[in-house]
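Q: I have 138 residues here and want to know how they pack in 3D. Can you give me a structure?
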Amino acid sequence: MGRSAARRLFVCLVVSGLLVAGETRAQDADPWFGHDKVLHLTVSAGLAAGGYTAGAFAFDARYEALLAGGGLALAAGTAKEVADLAGWGHASWRDFTWDVIGTALGLGLTWGLDLAVRGVDRAHPALGSQPHALVVRF
């Protein structure tokens, strides 16, 4: 394929994508950037951050805190969408996508803050724990 043919193909793909996006946006009852998407993002980020913080107090290994925060936020988002499927609202993959993005954002910010505050040392590695030492603090 020559350069001019590749250029024409690229232009056709871009124009087709814009036409499809414009048509989808005109008929879309569930926009990607609606008000409810901000709620999904922020609530998921808050749940993930809270779950990570609780996990950081309960576990020595940071990966366990990440699992706790991620599990809490994604479980709540999944429960919300399942309730919507059961007729209590309007189920949306776009809502769940924003739940996942919010979860990642909340975990990333909280984990980064934890690394900055507690630092990384033998007792608190960046992710793992000491070999064969799963310790739960109460």
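Q: Anything worth noting?
A: The chain is about 75% helix and 0% strand. The mean pLDDT is 84.
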